[in-house]
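Researcher: Re-running this chain for the archive, since the previous output was lost when a drive failed. Same request as before.
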Amino acid sequence: MSSRRFLSLIGAAGALLLVATQADAHARVVATTPAASATVTSTRAIAVTFSDRVAPAFSGLDLVTATGARIGVTSSVSEDGKTISGRTAGALAAGSYTVNWRAASNDGHRMTGTFAFTVR
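Model: Regenerated structure tokens:
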């Protein structure tokens, strides 16, 4: 086999590996609002931003107080499909809160996670 043909085969194999790796990649959290562990003065808005699109039908947010009480949140997925946003009916009272999020990547991989923040 000539060295030119060998290098072509190696290049093609590398390209296939790169494409396969990218196709297997799942969306991951790249930012939250408020930031995880942040202390804020007041907020009505919460959000989780992902590296890739998520499926709106399987994505949402729940907000829970330190005592376990659930706070009503209206949530939606952004037009670009990368951010789940939520809004409370009113400003949050001082205290600790946990956001429980759920999402599904476009490849069907379901994910869940949490982050906490404090309102002072």
